[in-house]
Design a protein that fits this description.
The protein has 6 helices and 3 strands, in the order ααββααβαα. The protein is an alpha+beta fold. Helix 1 runs antiparallel to helix 2 and helix 2 packs across helix 3.
């Protein structure tokens, strides 16, 4: 039911979230859904129709859903580094390292960075 539901969705991001989710049982009434990040968690949580469908199929029990965000459970995923905010000076330094001709233009036209 889970993978079929995800495959029927038009959105590739929803399909991917359903494909990578790891399902488990905790006791008799809790389905655990382990995901690599909060974005996938929110994507799955938004699919309330599926959650209601699961509850209907198991009407004799009160089914609960527990969402677990655990990047370590997905070793195939790369941890993304936080993006650092660069100052204009840092940005210029990076650009001139990548393209040294830029430094020639700065020198030739006596350009300065606003601070």
């Amino acid at each position: 039911m889970w993978s079929e539901y995800g495959a029927r969705k038009d959105s590739k991001s929803i399909q991917l979230a359903f494909e990578i989710a790891k399902l488990g049982l905790k006791g008799d009434q809790t389905i655990t859904i382990t995901l690599p990040n909060k974005i996938n968690e929110e994507t799955i949580k938004a699919e309330v129709n599926l959650m209601e469908q699961i509850r209907k199929n198991y009407s004799d029990r009160e089914i609960l859903f527990e969402y677990i965000v655990d990047l370590d459970a997905f070793p195939e995923y790369e941890k993304q580094e936080e993006k650092k905010t660069f100052t204009p000076v840092d940005k210029l330094r990076l650009l001139t390292q990548k393209n040294p001709i830029l430094q020639d233009l700065i020198d030739k036209f006596d350009l300065k960075i606003d601070k």
